[in-house]
């Protein structure tokens, strides 16, 4: 299901976070749980992975993660602001030390000139306030490829956040 690169990143995360005794949570929209799936594909992930939130609808984002309705109304579900609030919600609704969140348009439908297919916003946040944000424009490369590229970027962000804390 996952590429060798993704599994290698996940293995690295499990090792680094186990050594640091840190926990992770995920908040996913367009990836539908694939980030959590990649992490839990690795043996020993239970010592690192606390929980994942799959919040595909706006209602789920509001109810499960505390995303503000006004944020969704002003910026939309696919926005940096929403991704940051998703990461914040996942962090503070779990026992995790860091959280990563993704929201985007995997396609093939749902895109617009302002928000094209392949647009994904990601945010990774730590309890000490560190925040990494990414806006990715993968393009209309196919739903599966957008989702896997997003998983890879999210895992890279977790490593970056952990390394900045070391």
Could you describe the 3D structure shown?
This protein is α/β, with parallel strands linked by helices. It is built from 6 helices and 5 strands; from the N terminus they run H-E-H-E-H-H-H-E-E-E-H. The protein has a single domain (2-162), classed as Maf protein, CATH 3.90.950. It has helices spanning 4-20, 34-40, 58-65, 69-75, 80-92, 143-165, and strands at 24-28, 49-54, 98-104, 119-126, 131-137. Helix 1 (4-20) packs parallel to helix 6 (143-165). The radius of gyration is 15 Å and the shape is globular. The model has no long low-confidence stretch (mean pLDDT 97). It comes from Rhizobium azibense. InterPro entries: CinA-like_C, CinA_C.
Q: How are the SSEs placed, and which strands pair?
A:
Blueprint: H1 4-20, E1 24-28, H2 34-40, E2 49-54, H3 58-65, H4 69-75, H5 80-92, E3 98-104, E4 119-126, E5 131-137, H6 143-165
Parallel strand pairs: 1-2, 1-3
Antiparallel strand pairs: 3-4, 4-5
What is the gist of this entry?
Pfam families: CinA (PF02464). With 166 residues, this protein is α/β, with parallel strands linked by helices.
Please describe the structure with a list of short key phrases separated by commas or semicolons.
166 residues; alpha/beta; Maf protein; five-stranded mixed sheet; 5 strands
Number of H- or I-type helical stretches: 6
* Largest beta-sheet characterization: 5 strands, mixed
Structural shape: globular
- Unreliable stretches, pLDDT < 50, 5 or more residues? none
What number of structural domains do the residues give?
Answer: 1
From the helix content, strand content and strand pairing, which structural class follows? Answer: alpha/beta
**CATH fourth-tier homologous superfamily:** CinA-like
- Number of DSSP E strands: 5
Range of helix content: 40-55%
**Terminal-residue CA separation:** 31 Å
H/E element string?
A: HEHEHHHEEEH
């Amino acid at each position: 299901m996952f590429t060798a690169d993704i599994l290698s990143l996940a293995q690295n995360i499990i090792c680094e976070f186990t050594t640091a005794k840190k926990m992770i949570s995920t908040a996913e929209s367009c990836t539908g749980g694939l980030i959590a799936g990649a992490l839990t594909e690795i043996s020993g992930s239970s010592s690192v992975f606390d929980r994942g939130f799959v919040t595909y609808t706006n209602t789920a984002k509001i109810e499960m993660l505390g995303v503000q309705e006004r944020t969704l109304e002003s910026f939309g579900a696919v926005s940096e602001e929403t991704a940051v609030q998703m990461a914040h919600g996942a962090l503070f609704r779990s026992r995790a030390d860091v959280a990563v969140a993704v929201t985007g348009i995997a396609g093939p439908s749902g895109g617009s000139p302002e928000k094209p297919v392949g647009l994904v916003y990601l945010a990774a946040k730590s309890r000490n306030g560190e925040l990494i944000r990414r806006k990715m424009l993968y393009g209309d490369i196919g739903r599966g490829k957008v989702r896997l590229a997003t998983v890879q970027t999210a895992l890279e962000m977790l490593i970056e956040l952990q390394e900045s804390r070391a």
